[in-house]
Amino acid sequence: MKLSEEDRDKLALHSAFAVHQIARWIATRDDVPKDIRDRLRGHISALEGVMVTSGHDWIRDEMEATEQALNA
Predict the structure, then answer these.
(1) Comparing C-alpha atoms, which of 60, 47, 57 is closest to residue 15?
(2) Hey, which bits of 1-72 come out as E strands?
């Protein structure tokens, strides 16, 4: 089955948001190794850039807060 471009974009957006939610939860945990937190921070930064560039800037502040929390 091949997804339409619109469905593919929706899938990508929802997947990115789900990754962000997981990263936000991980940022609250003390038992997550630093290397995993660092990698997630990089992914969140990349997702934020793509989402903001594609017009989804409504999530910018939340993603930046997650990046900062992963730094802690």
Answers:
(1) 47
(2) none
- Return averaged pLDDT per consecutive 10 residues of the chain, 72 residues in all: 91 90 93 92 90 86 91 84
Contact 27, 66 (CB under 8 A): yes
Reading phi first (left if > 0) and then psi (alpha if -120 to 50, else beta), residue 65 is in alpha
- Residues ≥6 apart with Cβ < 8 Å to 57: 51
Residue 38 CA to residue 23 CA, distance in Å, equals 11
Residues 6+ apart with CB under 8 A from 38: 70
- Determine the angle formed by the axes of helices 5-27 and 60-71, rounding to 10 degrees: 40
Tokens of 21: 């939610």
